[in-house]
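ARCHIVE CARD
CATEGORY: sequence design from structure
SOURCE FIELD: tokenized fold
FIELD CONTENT:
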């Protein structure tokens, strides 16, 4: 069973070295154009085991978030920016609780997410610019273990505010996290 169901991903100009040594499959230096950026992957799988263990290392550089959002079936709204990322993951095929890994993601110069969640705070504190927040950058390290994603300090940044996230998200959709909100000094001065 696949871990993630994806309607459509687009890889262009794929090149790779492949080796099958005994029952072990190695994929070396797989690289591809990936939404105007570069996708690179190395992986290993032991085909001799009924539940094959695997290891994978993926790097993404300069992926165009706008092209990704308008051509893949994953993102439902139009966003923009550039994405760099890395994921190192180990586990066994089809056994989600065996997954263990670490990932870094950085999205910059973006239009990621528009929100009016601060509208009530903006009204109470007399800060009109806080009514509509557009997040332009996101970055942080995410660990994967025990069927959960964990982060100690994932950040979403806008011109007005910064959200810092610490906690875990389960594969079963459970959330145990703390979000800290930091307003920019100029906004606070605006309210006085």
């Amino acid at each position: 069973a696949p871990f993630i169901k994806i309607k459509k991903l687009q890889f262009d100009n794929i090149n790779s070295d492949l080796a099958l040594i005994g029952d072990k499959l190695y994929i070396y230096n797989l690289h591809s154009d990936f939404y105007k950026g570069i996708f690179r992957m190395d992986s290993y799988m032991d085909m001799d085991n009924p539940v094959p263990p695997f290891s994978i290392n993926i790097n993404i550089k300069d992926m165009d978030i706008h092209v990704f959002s308008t051509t893949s079936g994953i993102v439902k709204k139009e966003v923009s920016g550039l994405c760099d990322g890395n994921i190192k993951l180990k586990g066994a095929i089809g056994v989600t609780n065996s997954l263990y890994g670490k990932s870094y993601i950085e999205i910059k110069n973006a239009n990621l997410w528009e929100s009016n969640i601060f509208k009530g705070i903006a009204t109470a504190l007399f800060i009109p610019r806080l009514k509509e927040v557009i997040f332009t950058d996101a970055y942080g390290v995410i660990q994967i273990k025990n069927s959960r994603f964990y982060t100690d300090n994932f950040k979403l940044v806008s011109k007005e505010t910064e959200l810092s996230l610490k906690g875990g998200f389960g594969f079963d959709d459970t959330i145990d996290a703390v979000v800290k909100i930091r307003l920019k000094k100029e906004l606070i001065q605006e309210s006085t």
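CARD ANNOTATION: Confidence is low (pLDDT under 50) at residues 1-6. The first helix runs from residue 65 to 71.
SHELF: design records, drawer C
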